[in-house]
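Notes from the pairing session

We agreed to fold both candidates in a single pass and log them together. This is the raw record for the first candidate, unedited. Please don't reformat it; downstream parsing expects exactly this layout.

Candidate A
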Amino acid sequence: MTLTVATFYRFVPLDDLPSLQPALQAACVENGLRGTILIASEGINGTLAGPADGIEAMLGDLDERCGVRSGEVKLSQAEEWPFARLKIRIRPEIITMRAPEADPAVLAGTYVEPADWNALLADPDVLLLDTRNRYETKVGTFAGAVDPGLDNFTDFKAFVESALDPALHTKVAMFCTGGIRCEKASAFMRAKGFPEVFHLKGGILQYLEDVPEADSRWQGECYVFDGRVAVGHGLAPTGWTACFGCGNPLSPEDLRAPEYEPGVSCPACIDDLTPEKAASLRERQRQMLAS
């Protein structure tokens, strides 16, 4: 079974969210889709999986409702369901930053197409920032990128204010998985006085789809927020999996580590694992294997 996976977002004013939520739920169910959609007054953000015709119909519905095709839409494939269920949620923000000044509709950075990204990175005056969380950067990143060591995207604000200076860092390029975090991160930096801020249009996923592997500056794979865990060039799924205990992405090498126990622990969470939680996870694992 080959499923189509659609990742999309658009910053666009939305109203009457309590009515929009059940309408989107019904449309997804009708088209046989699973995944997550977040809606807020500032826009829509989601990833859905299902049959190709169902995805196409849903994108048409979303385009009529909120012009989603005027934002970012990326399609890929999966051989198994990357989501177990469907969730439509109303949120204060479609990507949480808690920075009112970070408004992409008012003050955004400059888009850079994937085909032009390598040339920008060749500029020695450019500071390259990875705006993702540390568990994502572990899976892969661009050569030469600065990893701020974020545990949450909201931590990006403190990193900028403590580690960067608009007078010194006059040309900044940033990237994220699909582009949405960079929309807000670039707007935040522009609001803080950074003169030139660039971000990769369509994010890492678009770069991996468009740029030939032989020309790529990407190192490793790209973490994704679904059951595939990570994808590589051409958006093909890779050998990464995830720890059930903590959700941390696990490489084939991690699976061979002594701290790894299927369904229970991995090197990232073993030190925080209490005997009670370990017993609970082992019982769950036993029940799953017995079913």
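Candidate B (folded immediately after A)
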Amino acid sequence: MSESAPRILIVEDEAEIRRFVCLSLAREGFEIYEADSVQRGLIEAGTRRPQMLVLDLGLPDGDGVDLIRSMRAWSNVPILVLSARRDEEDKVEALEAGADDYLVKPFGTAELLARVRAHLRRSSSLAAHADATLIAFGDVKIDLARRTVARAGETLHVTPIEYRLLTHLAAHPQCALSHRQLLQAVWGPNHSQDTHYLRVYMGQLRKKIEHDPAQPRHLVTETGIGYRFVP
């Protein structure tokens, strides 16, 4: 095992699922650690200092959401939830507690690996380019220093709210952000229920930066959750 292999902690109480996830990730060269409860997960996280956490929500000594909140008190590592809970409320609760992504069981190996790699890339990129002032995707460039957005070399007219919405999404690539998270970040805490604001401004942004606003490639809808920025 390479010393530079990313360390991933799997917190899952169902032995068969835990073994499947561990083997799937280990085959890709990741360094894997395991836990089967909230308490053990926190101990392993504090000891091993993983670069990513993959966890179930239904654990024998508590809820995985509590583990997420505890982790977020001292760590910003990517957290991917694997859960059989399909309700929108469960997804939103986990994301607002600090999870970066949510994958519903049952899931395939390919999707699991793709999401793990995406979050590790994002985490590595943020660490390496913390001072970067330019975000580029497709033929769009966001200049954070000048607060401008250009497409194919032409400066776009974006309103202050459109700019805040776009840059907040772009700052969290591949993360599923809930409606409430986006509303609070862009409009403030008094607008956490005004989802119609979000739909209107997202529609306007898509018309400006997507080649086909009806089938967006970068500002993608996460059904029942919110939106995801795909570079």
